[in-house]
Amino acid sequence: MRTDSEIKSDILEELAWQPNVDETEIGVVVEDGTVMLTGVLDDYRKKVAAEDAVKNVRGVKALVGDIQVKYGANYQKTDLEISKAIVKAFEWNTAVPEDEISVEVRDGWVNLSGEVDWAYQKDAAKRVAENIIGVKWINNAITIKQSIQPADVKEQINKAFLRSADIEANAITVEATEGLVKLFGTVHSIAEKKAAEDAAYLSPGVHIVINELEVID
């Protein structure tokens, strides 16, 4: 079992390793494997990069992100400018069915809604929006259409786990009911937990993934 001080030390090193993140701008608190990040950054992409870096550290069981995003005067954008930029970016990304997605922006906070066929389309929309200057936070409320039976969903997810080099498939149990998937079992990092969740979302017909995987050392 790794100590909180060991985990914190690795987190600080991982943040320092990120080319677009200044670790001195981020506060790190670790308690029983749960990590809280605090601070103020000038770019939403830096916030995402910092949180992703923490998830890769062994021993991290949960992440509470409290980093705020405040843009400098040269990068201030109106909600209309942000909305237009997101819609334009959707048009250039073949993974995003822009006609199926609505964008609402209030004070830099982005709400994405609509219904798409695949979870990867929902995730792609969020990733595109993350790269738009002026975005402070994203609520991805896009839903997934139901298209196949629960038994088929479970089978496809299990096969995806077996194909993945990042997931220990034998330690994960999958339950599927009408577009809802629950994951049980153990993994060795938040990154592996997220990889399992992402693999589940890639199955057609999956609306929601309840990820109850436990992170163990």
From TrEMBL:
- Could you tell me which Gene3D superfamilies the record lists for this protein? 3.30.1340.30
Q: Locate the BON domain: which residues?
A: 3-71, 78-146, 149-217
Matching entries from InterPro entries are given as: BON_dom, Lipoprotein_DolP, Transpt-assoc_nodulatn_dom_bac
Q: What is this protein called?
A: Osmotically-inducible protein OsmY
The opening ranks of the lineage are:
Bacteria, Pseudomonadati, Bacteroidota, Flavobacteriia, Flavobacteriales
